[in-house]
Amino acid sequence: MIDDHVRAEIDALNAATGLVLRVAPETATARRLRDHAGDLIGELGRAGTWTRLRRVREEADRLRAEALDYAHAVMLRGHPLGEDDGAARALARHLCERAGLPGDVEIIASSGPESFTRVADLIRLPPHADVWHLPVLAHELGHYVIHEARHVRVGDERPLRERAGTSPQNELIADCYATYAVGPAYPLSCICLRIDPQELDLAPETHPPWRVRVHTMAEMLRLMSRQHGTQQYGGAVESWIRPAWTELTGEDAIDPGRHTAPMPASAILRLLERHLPRARYDAGYGVDGAERVLNGQKNVRRSGISPAHVLNAAWRLRRDGRRSPEVNRRAMALLLEAA
Ligand SMILES: [Zn+2]
Fold first, then answer.
1. Distance from Cα 160 to the centre of ligand 1, integer Å
2. What is the pLDDT, as a whole number, of residue 80?
């Protein structure tokens, strides 16, 4: 009887990866899915007991979901309706380039919450994420960066991954990477769009409580200011992030409360400065230039404006009460241009 179950599982895996290989035959993602499916099929063949079958089946379920989501994304992209994720892909390309990584991640629209899954390196985002939602892409990409960033000198060491031993550590490093790479826009998007003020202290097994996460992001920015002798990071905490936090929570300070962080911001900053120094966001001229473009000014110099500048300019305008569909439309166009 168990053989029938194993056979059905293998057929389902073959069907899902077969679909991927038909819609996207030449992609690295399709090859990764096929290879991983091959490994799982080998394990299924050796499962032998119901307990082992159950364990392999869980992984096979995840792989099938990834394969089908990827196939849907590729098919949707071939349709005019699916072209809207260009800005998100441009941002991901920019961030990967700054992190010195090849960036073969795939971004797909999903009905569920945003997430990153490993086998196919898929980032799931809500469909039609607007410019104010896009900073969360940097967090999801952070999980990819943690996994892929190599030691500068020694061939195959993965220094970030070594430090991200537990899931809460991994999440906190992804938060800090996002803050490091896209600046104040990331904590602002968390506070203004994602955090439920009633759930600040909620501590699921996988994530540190929001209180700890936002505190660590703010600490990162303050430490970055100190390290680089500039007001731009710590200054943004005072002028943008803390006021938004107070508005959301009614609290004056961004306080971690009774929780301890799984890692201090200083340790994470040291890691990022050492292994990803080019990834650091720098407001420079770019954010002012981007703000002018988003305001509809003509003849603005575009060189020096990066996708991260666009996100920060959009958030500045939003916090100044100047959020509009026009700003979003211009931001999406500028993201494509700036990448
Ligand atoms: Zn995460």
1. 15
2. 63
